[in-house]
Predict the 3D structure of the following.
Amino acid sequence: MKIAISLAEHNYIINTEQGHSLAIPLDFLHAHNQPSHFGATPALASAMQAGDFIGDTRKGGSCNVLELSINPHCHGTHTETIAHICHTDHPLSIAVSALALPPLIPCTLITLSPITASCTQDHYRPSLEANDRVIGRRQLEQQLAPYTKHQLQALVVRTLPNNADKCHQHYNDEKQPAFFTADAVCYLNERGVEHLLLDLPSLDRANDQGLLTCHRLFWQVSAGSHQASPTSLVNKTITEMAYIDNSLSDGFYFLNLQTPAFITDAAPSRPVLYQALRVNESHGQQ
């Protein structure tokens, strides 16, 4: 099926049969195949047992019924709301279930190589260390210059090197991932990015003294506060631990961000990209 879309006086067509999932498949039965972060114990699946019933056909059950144990933040592709850093009982601290996500979101995909902190004048709290690997403001400025605000409602950032090892990478003190500088996130806010998708396990440094500087900047929550305010950007989302295959070219897409109706600050998610084919009204597709 093809869908025609009008955006900012331009027309596009997407083919719904050619979507590209950015979600990492999660293997509950083989921990070594799972990605993990922050020392989390593996995600697990076990057969439900209730009285004489067992949810495993291999053990005589009539059907398979699995109980899952998962930490969305640490076990693969997930989407976070402002509730990740704010008290969940605050009225502005919306859960995943309350997100008002359009079915198709204008989205740009870019690819960047993290740089060492010594190569940038950007800031971060706590202070950057010389060997930190970061995504900086200038990199984003250069990559996003060709795109309009309408094309940046969502942004997918693929980092290099990019290979399938990201699908089962165990991030730890010896395998410190890259993260964004404060200046970089401020620039994303200036460009109006509402939905940020990364192939990194976190927007922030893994060991950041609990400051979550970039998360706070993105949602506009004051440092040290766990309360959203009227100026907070409560409808924005951050998706982490995605995997963007090298077959996808940088450029403009439409995003379908699929999330379950969990009343939680984060949930496993399945972002799907559809290539946006520009239509020239007089000459057809470009």
Q: What stands out?
A: The first strand starts at residue 2 and ends at 7. The chain has a mean pLDDT of 96. The helical segments are 137-144, 182-190, 213-219.
